[in-house]
Design goal:
- GO terms for molecular function: isomerase activity.
- Keywords: Isomerase.
- It comes from Actinoplanes sichuanensis.
- The chain is an alpha+beta fold and 247 residues long.
- 53% of the residues lie in helices and 8% in strands.
- The protein has helices at residues 6-21, 26-29, 40-58, 67-70, 74-85, 89-109, 125-147, 157-166, 168-174, 209-216, 234-240, and strands spanning 182-187, 193-197, 203-208, 228-230.
- Strands 2-1-3-4 form a four-stranded mixed sheet.
- Strand 1 (182-187) and strand 2 (193-197) form a beta hairpin.
- The chain is globular.
């Protein structure tokens, strides 16, 4: 796969989701999503709210949401935001459409060398765009799987796989373990191979890129994934794999 611009790919990921959302009927919006406790409309509201936060922080307005005041964890804060603004699906769709376009515009216009504030971690604009792509992809699964809608994997998953692999040192530290070098040899959706990470790493995760990314997004249990591990710490790495935001 040729390396593509993350902003272009973020927009493409959002367009793929928008195509699905534009076809939903009134009852579809009320369908329970794969995100526990949220309907399809709630999932999209969450995406709209966080895209609006991107616009504010990338535009230099600082932290528009005091996440720490809304819950003990980021997840609790996100849940509180959704609870406060639940509404009609088509109206939320319009809100998200405006926010997602404004978000990419703001990220493109930002100083690419300077981190912007994001929840608990300052991120450079391209890294923040990568996390937004991963977020939209994961929540698209939460929407399409319960509805039985086809949402095929694409080459854009390379960004998500990079994110998961790049944040493994952070995941090891969170678990109180010394980081271990890991590489991933992944089969892309088109059948090609993506080799990510240190080529000399003794710990290797091999298998479908889609499974690797779903494990990182906590949409697939490692035991259910078609992934193979080799090396003393590879199994631990797969267990700890998350698509975290990184600097």
């Amino acid at each position: 796969m040729a390396h593509t611009d993350v902003y272009d790919d973020l927009e493409a990921e959002q367009r793929q989701l928008e195509t699905v959302l534009a076809r939903l009927g009134p009852d579809d919006w009320k369908t329970p999503s794969a995100a526990e406790g949220w309907t399809i409309a709630d999932v999209l509201l969450h995406l709209a709210q966080t895209e609006e936060a991107v616009v504010a922080t990338a535009g230099g307005q600082g932290d528009p949401v005091r996440w720490h005041e809304l819950g003990a964890t980021v997840d609790e804060a996100m849940g509180a935001l959704v609870e406060a603004e639940r509404g009609d699906g088509p109206e939320i769709l319009d809100r998200w459409r405006a926010a997602r376009r404004a978000s990419v515009t703001a990220l493109r216009a930002a100083d690419q060398t300077q981190p912007v504030r994001w929840v608990a971690t300052p991120l450079k604009p391209r890294t923040l765009a990568t996390t937004r792509l991963a977020e939209h992809w994961a929540h698209a699964l939460d929407i399409t799987v319960p509805l039985g809608v086809d949402h095929p994997d694409t080459a854009r998953l390379r960004h998500v796989a990079w994110l998961g692999l790049s944040t493994l040192p952070y995941a090891f530290r969170l678990a109180g373990l010394p980081p271990a070098p890991v590489r991933a040899d992944l089969t892309a959706p088109d059948g090609s191979t993506w080799r990510l990470g240190d080529p000399a790493a003794a710990n290797v995760i091999t298998g479908p890129a889609g499974d690797f990314c779903r494990v990182g997004a906590q949409r697939l249990a490692p035991a259910d994934a078609k992934l193979l591990v080799s090396g003393p710490q590879a199994g631990t790495a797969l267990r700890l794999l998350r698509n975290y935001a990184v600097r």
